[in-house]
Amino acid sequence: MYIRLDRASRKAAVILGGGTLVCVGMLLAWDINPTFFPRSVHVLLEGFSLALIALAYIVYQSAHRPPLMEWIKAIILATAFLFWSANQFWPNLRQGMILNDIAIALFVLDVFLVIVGWPATSPDESFAEIYPRSINRSIHHERTK
User: Fold this and answer.
1) Which domain holds residue 36?
2) pLDDT band per the 50, 70, 90 thresholds, residue 9
3) Which of 23, 76, 85, 141 is positioned for an S-S bond with 50, CB 3.0–4.6 A?
């Protein structure tokens, strides 16, 4: 079962995630006005935002202390973001294409694992998932013990 985050852990993940949102905002501003900053900065922001959200997610998960299988799944997702990030930095190299293909494979694997319900752990209501009332009641009962 998941552990609730303490304020310091939540704050670190939120700061990293917020930094990612700033980078993404700058990318979208560049899309609206390409003279906002040089193309080379745009490329750096692309790669940096993907790497930063991977780091934020790992910090969040490490503080959250999920079960081992959920931890493995989180590492798969963060690794996909890191490979995608690397591809943004080196898009024209053959290795860049390989990094991108690995990222795609890991994203596909992650979504497939969600579809098949692996790992079978307790639902996490913080992700706004919908479960039958009987599951929600049993989770609430477990949390109030």
Assistant:
1) 7-143
2) confident
3) 85
